[in-house]
Amino acid sequence: MIGNEFKCAGDATLVVQQSNEFLRIGVRDHGPGVPTSELNQVTQAYYRVHKARTGPGMGVGLGLAIVSEVALAHGGRLALKNHAQGGLIALLILPHQPSGIVPIPQPRPHRVII
Predict the structure, then answer these.
(1) Distance (Å, rounded) from C-alpha 31 to C-alpha 87?
(2) pTM here?
């Protein structure tokens, strides 16, 4: 998630907050953001906002999809929104495990598209 922000915007701000219930990891970049109409699509595997950006190091559109799936597997979620002053905010919200023991998530069925 953090690497994605650096790759797309060149810099990022990281904020970590912990409460009794949740761990929140927020990353804000200062790039162009994501068109509002595409915010829900960027967590889909292989979806890229800037399809013209191809080549080494440009990615294939898996980063946010993986973060979203891992968050769901641990009972959390990934929320994305554009900042009012520009850039994207990615907020990873995970349930807090005060014992330090993280339960092993049950496997979820996956769709394979050929």
Answers:
(1) 5
(2) 0.69
